[in-house]
Known about the structure:
157 residues, alpha+beta, five-stranded antiparallel β-sheet, disordered N terminus, disordered C terminus
Amino acid sequence: MDGAAHNGDRPRAEPVKVSAEYEGMPGDIARGRELARGFLARVRAAQGPPVSDRAVELVQLVVSELLTNACKYAPGPSLVDLELAEDRVEVTVWDSEPVLPVAATADPGRIGRHGLEIVMAVCQSFEVHREPVGKRMRAAVGLADDLNGTAALGRPA
């Protein structure tokens, strides 16, 4: 055999993924948002799953909030991975701080510290895992809008 697909076999698609490392420097959050915009533009150009404008905004928001927390609370570098997974983007941020984040009780009078609440509100899922060094936070953002024009959050309308 010459390695070509035969009998209706389809070659396996490679995962669509991008990664970047950040050092906690001024401009890292903006660079993280740009990474997300560029990644989703490539997904659109490759005619992958439909990517709504709202989903582009939400992925940028999630990257921004998680990377802000990493820059603010963790010493050292952080890593951002964006991966296409069927009809969603999985945003993963690793940082060196082993303390797991906890969303504060809702308080509209509180100024700041709403990032985790925001991430949990706009994502299909959110999880945090302690690593041998630091922690890894993963959030899934739906790519398509539902029939009401809002990004699919994985929750009933």
